[in-house]
Design brief:
Elements (H helix, E strand, L loop, with lengths): L11 H5 L4 H23 L1 E13 L8 E4 L4 E6 L6 E2 L4 E6 L5 H39 L4 H36 L2 E3 L4 E6 L7 E2 L4 E7 L5 E6 L1 H4 L7 E6 L18 E8 L9 E7 L17 E12 H10 L10 E2 L2 E2 L9
Antiparallel strand pairs: 1-10, 1-14, 2-9, 3-5, 3-8, 4-7, 5-6, 7-9, 10-13, 11-12, 11-14, 12-13, 15-16
InterPro entries: MFP
Protein name: Biotin-lipoyl like
Keywords: Coiled coil, Membrane, Transmembrane, Transmembrane helix
Length: 351
């Protein structure tokens, strides 16, 4: 029989108690587990991130979905495309006709008349200028008075004014004819017809009214993320971003980006200086040169949803849990400006 410890000789009842073996094992497991947890919290690095959700957009307005509008007032006569059809730049989209089918012929006839007026006015100006030269010589010889010479100059000015008026009328006619000749609407660039907004025949359209919707091919894409104001103050241009596209299989560990799968790289392009109506700030993310390209627009079209994580400082897991529990912003030590600009964030295992 084992001897009792010296300090239990005076406590016979306590010394008679034998704790269960399971309790002893459990206590050792709890002690070791707490020690490992503390070591994990105090030593394992964690990359702080500013998470946000958004969508894929085109930064260039010409690459965005756009409306094909009517340039003149008229009636839809014929469509050359259907919903979902691909078109090339300059392809015919729709033919419009004016309510007056003889309008172009009448404008052409009026143009011929104005051109004749211009020709006559030019001849009249030349004749009047010749008269001025003749009267000027006569005035120098004393055959006529200077008043006759001034009257001749006035006639030249009047005929030049009529010539200018006729030319202005011709310019207005050409503008009207050019507008009417724009009744054939063409595709502004390569793309796909998403939706046709007008019918054929009796549909009357006005200038600027949308006729169809075009989605351009192969646009340049960026990601628009909406980030909380708690984090946006520490995000700088060029910060790395990890992206998970909608419909693309991905496994994300925000604190350990090296073990993530199916994620794509990006970098902060710009941060809006003011909040959106929902209180979030917009962060634009662009692809990183030299890194794997984003999925093509056939898989990730404009408007596709995206989840993004802007990578910031590297801290311990314990600090990050403490920060989250207290709702504090990310660590800002390395995000402060130095004399050469903002310092980029560190990665796990780097200094």
């Amino acid at each position: 029989m084992l001897s009792r410890p010296e300090h239990l000789r005076h406590f016979p009842t306590l010394g008679a108690i034998n704790p269960p073996r399971a309790a002893i094992v459990l206590s050792w497991m709890l002690g070791i587990g707490i020690g490992l947890t503390l070591a994990l919290l105090l030593t394992v690095p964690w990359v702080q991130t500013a998470a946000g959700a958004g969508r894929v957009i085109a930064p260039n307005p010409a690459d965005r979905v756009q409306a094909i509008t009517a340039l003149v007032q008229g009636r839809v006569e014929r469509w050359y495309v259907e919903d979902g059809q691909e078109v090339r730049e300059g392809d015919e989209i729709v033919q419009l006709v004016d309510n007056d089918p003889l309008l172009l012929k009448r404008l052409e006839a009026e143009r011929e008349q104005v051109e004749a007026e211009i020709t006559a006015a030019q001849k009249a100006v030349r004749v009047a200028e010749g008269e001025v030269d003749q009267i000027k010589g006569a005035v120098e010889k004393g055959y006529v008075t200077r008043r006759n010479f001034e009257a001749a100059q006035i006639r030249v000015a009047e005929r030049r004014a009529r010539l200018a008026e006729a030319k202005a009328k011709l310019a207005r006619l050409e503008v009207s004819m050019n507008r009417q000749s724009a009744q054939l609407v063409r595709a502004p660039r390569d793309g796909r017809i998403l939706h046709i907004n007008a019918a054929t025949g009796s549909t009357l359209v006005n200038p600027g009214e949308p006729l169809a919707t075009l989605a351009p091919h192969a646009p340049d894409r960026v990601v628009e993320l909406m980030v909380s104001g708690l984090d946006v103050a520490l995000i700088r241009h060029g910060y790395p971003v990890r992206l998970a596209f909608e419909g693309w299989p991905a496994i994300q560990f925000s604190g350990w980006p090296s073990v993530a799968h199916g994620m794509f790289d990006g970098q902060v392009r710009s941060v809006d200086p003011s909040a959106q109506p929902n209180g979030l700030f917009r962060v634009l993310v662009e692809p990183v040169p030299g890194r794997p390209e984003w999925p093509t627009s056939a898989f990730i079209p404009l408007g596709a949803k995206v989840r993004g994580w802007v990578q910031m400082e590297t801290v311990t897991i314990g600090y990050e849990l403490w920060r989250k529990l207290n709702n504090f912003p990310p660590e800002f030590g390395r995000s402060r400006q130095n004399e050469h600009g903002p310092i980029p964030p560190s990665r796990p295992g780097t200094t």
